[in-house]
Design a protein that fits this description.
Elements: E1 4-8, H1 15-25, E2 29-31, E3 35-36, E4 51-52, H2 55-63, E5 67-73, E6 76-81, H3 82-89, E7 94-98, H4 101-110, E8 115-120, H5 124-134, H6 139-152, E9 161-164, H7 168-185, H8 190-199
Parallel strand pairs: 1-7, 1-8, 2-7, 3-4, 8-9
Antiparallel strand pairs: 3-6, 5-6
Helix pairs in contact: 5-6
The structure holds guanosine-5'-monophosphate.
Guanosine-5'-monophosphate binds at residues 11, 34, 38, 69, 71, 73-74, 78-80, 98-100, 102-103.
């Protein structure tokens, strides 16, 4: 039986690096590829980092009921398709989702046994420093992301587990231990996902 792991965090918490490292470490995990309307960043590959698409294409997918969840994040649309999860779980692997907290809550409503892990920054000040050092966003976008993060952090209590990314290696070890622990102990209710999929 396959599991669904959802990892969520405000941007700048080191989530992407942690998630990539984990999916490289464990062969049984495969990252889902989300759809987005945001512009491709330097170094990103269509179909690997995201399925990049126009807003019209995204809306068609919504109308076709292809998304298990979709959200507007930082003024762009992001969504996880049913097929991106099912294609992975059908191979017997566990699906690893890196999505925002609203997507995490939406999926937990449909699949309560999905395992949600929220990554926290050591502080909001540290989060701001990291976003500045990352150099991907303008000052305005950074301020916007930090104030949104402040709001988002309130939702961390709804996740099954939280990991503070103060020390990267420690956070990585905690995540790995959690995933192995849950892999051994819990199986996601895929029948429920399939039933939901069929009803759409
Ligand atoms: P970025 O544009 O920096 O890659 O991602 C911005 C935010 O969108 C991140 O918090 C990321 O986790 C979230 N995100 C990525 N894919 C999805 C998705 O399919 N659904 C939702 N709800 N959020 C997503």
């Amino acid at each position: 039986m396959s599991n669904i792991f959802i990892i969520s965090a405000p941007s700048g918490c080191g989530k992407t690096s942690l998630v990539r490292e984990i999916s490289r470490t464990y062969d049984f995990l495969e990252l889902t590829v989300s759809c987005t309307t945001r512009k491709m960043r330097r170094g990103e590959v269509d179909g690997e980092d995201y399925h990049f698409m126009t807003a019209e294409h995204f809306m068609t997918k919504i109308s076709n009921g292809e998304f298990i969840e979709h959200e507007s994040v930082y003024d762009n649309y992001y969504g996880t398709t049913f097929s991106s999860i099912i294609d992975i779980t059908n191979t017997g692997k566990d699906a690893l989702l890196e999505i925002d907290y609203k997507g995490m809550l939406a999926i937990k409503r449909i699949i309560p046994n999905a395992i949600s892990i929220y990554i926290l920054p050591p502080s909001l000040e540290e989060l701001k420093n990291r976003l500045i050092q990352r150099g991907l966003d303008t000052q305005e976008v950074i301020n916007n992301r930090v104030s949104k993060a402040e709001n988002e952090l309130r939702y961390s209590r709804f996740s099954d587990f939280t990991v503070i990314n103060d020390d990267y290696n420690l956070a990585l070890s905690s995540l790995k231990s959690l995933i192995l622990y849950k892999k051994i102990n819990q199986n996601t209710d895929l029948n429920r996902l399939n039933r939901h999929f069929e009803s759409c």
